[in-house]
Specification:
Radius of gyration: 18 Å
CATH topology of the largest domain: Rossmann fold
Distance between the termini: 30 Å
Shape: globular
Oligomer: single chain
Largest sheet: 5 strands, parallel
Structural class: alpha/beta
CATH class of the largest domain: Alpha Beta
Strand content: 15-25%
Helix content: 40-55%
Order of helices and strands: HHHEHEEHEHEHHEHEEHEH
Length: 291
């Protein structure tokens, strides 16, 4: 995981150069789009959906395969899967209406998910040995952002600067809460998942304004509240008043996620855990026919 986290600036550049043109064509197709994925890929799907809509390219929804409403009019389906073997994703591709054109984004060429789609974009340079996803997820997002016109080179340079410095000293937090807004809500959910998977941490994630509507009741010394992107005016001060530690900086949320990866690695090391092999998890969820 440490090696794969450190490789992210280079894989972002490769994604922007190699995958962005194909994804620009896919994302620019007229009409509604459904983006589907499981686990990390679902959270990346949420960010992609928000970014596509914000770019004026049409209604875009994100869902897990089990909750995908295929009866709606989706001319386009974008399926995300690192391994290309996830059972639920294969099922949703098989069950999609004939009128729905599907594009798969995978890390493994020749995978079942890729074969089940009409088009496939392969990011094999971003594949990983660790069960915990880091660089594949952010590389998919980098390719999408490049396709939508963002300067990925500046993001990669910012990530290199982050990797050259120590992360926030919050690895021993009792509770860590990640807050996002707009497209960074998906980043917040993904950040929370990384600490759960790699370091068995108590984490939560919310759209930033929602934190005041109940969850802030748990904020106290020992709680870390990490803002990814811009938060509502006054929220950071309100959280700090509880005694909780606030992490709030001007970094791009995708770059800030790299710091979360660093914290996850540091926490796992402190607890003597192997972040590459989290308990109860496998690289891909492959179910038998009866499940």
């Amino acid at each position: 995981m440490e090696r794969e986290v450190a490789a992210q600036p280079d894989t972002w550049r490769a994604a922007a150069a190699g995958a962005a043109p194909a994804l620009a064509e896919v994302l620019g197709r007229p009409g509604p789009m459904l983006v589907v994925g499981c686990g990390t890929s679902w959270y990346v799907a949420q960010s992609i959906a928000a970014l596509r809509e914000e770019s004026g390219l049409g209604r875009t929804d994100a869902a897990t395969p089990s909750e995908a409403r295929l009866g709606r009019e989706y001319p386009h389906l974008l399926a995300l899967s690192r391994s290309g073997t996830t059972t639920e994703l294969r099922r949703v591709l098989a069950e999609r209406p004939e009128r729905t054109r599907a594009t798969a984004v995978v890390a493994v060429p020749g995978s079942p998910v890729g074969h089940a789609a009409d088009d496939v974009v392969v990011l094999d340079f971003a594949d990983e040995e660790s069960v915990v996803q880091t660089r594949f997820a952010t590389s998919v997002l980098a390719a999408v952002r490049a396709a939508l016109g963002d300067d990925v080179e500046s993001l990669a340079a910012a990530a290199e600067a982050v990797l050259a410095t120590a992360p926030p000293a919050v690895a021993d937090a009792r509770q860590t809460v990640f807050l996002g807004s707009d497209w960074s809500v998906g980043i917040a959910h993904e950040a929370a998942l990384k600490l759960r998977e790699a370091a068995r941490a108590w984490t939560e994630s919310y759209p930033a304004p929602e934190y005041r509507h109940g969850p802030i009741a748990l904020a106290e010394p020992g709680t870390v509240v990490w803002l990814l992107g811009d938060g509502p005016d006054g929220l950071a001060a309100q959280v700090a008043a509880t005694g909780a530690t606030v992490v709030d900086d001007p970094l791009d949320p995708m770059v800030d996620l790299v710091r979360v990866h660093q914290v996850a690695i540091a926490r796992a090391a402190r607890l003597g855990l192997d972040p590459d092999k989290p308990r109860n998890l496998t690289r891909s969820v492959v179910l038998d026919a009866a499940t």
